[in-house]
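User:
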Amino acid sequence: MQRTGGTLRWAEIDIETCELPAWQYDDLVGDRTAVVAVTAASDAVGTRTHLDRIAQAVRKTEALVVVDASAAAPFVPLDIASMGVDVVVVSAGAWGGPPVAALAFADPTLLDRLPSCALDPHARGPQRLELGPYPYPLLAGLIASVDYLADLDDGAVGARRERLLTGMASMSGYHCGLLNELIGDLRMLLHVNVIGDPVHRVPALAFTVSRMTPADVVAHLAKSGLCAFADDGQHGVFSALGVGEVGGAVRCGLAHYTSATETDALVRVLAELG
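Assistant: Predicted structure:
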């Protein structure tokens, strides 16, 4: 912002649900707005963003809509046209793929309107936004990771995207039931506080445990073979919620291979801390 002389404005989240209300963008976005950056989902509390509504508000201006879809990509089919946005950012590491990321543009001519960051002064097209040569071994791993997801549902047929859509639909239903039961069980534990209650979400959640630091909770879970992450609450959505003021939170999420046995074990081990 200092380099360009621009002014940064922040959208606010609903502190009760942790959702990002789309109505506020009618006031946040104006004729001088150049870029609106928003996430498709939160990997901290699981909230999914109403991208279509936000994009609709932004379309009244000349601003570009840039979406970080990394946290949503493992669970939600992505279609830049239906999103109504200009640029989608996605990292393969979010679904267990190699550490590579990409920018997808709805309008390829936008590439030539952005300043080049390439080391090669003669770079043209997409190469203008790439620092160096492609990491070809990692790109091979990227294709393999997508193929793996496309083959999760044994009944899926058709081209890779059709199989991905089928598999994600199956996985969504499975995660929904598993996550709802997990959150319900956690809320029965009086010493556990689940953060937020978004209606539209990906299978990720955060919680605090009374009289214990997140690091101590994570260490206790690890002894039982359960993986979770301690977050100090100083950044992102946790900073906006003031989670850092109570020492942070514990983060966890579900994968396509997560079972009810594992979520039951999480609840059981946390119950021991009460």
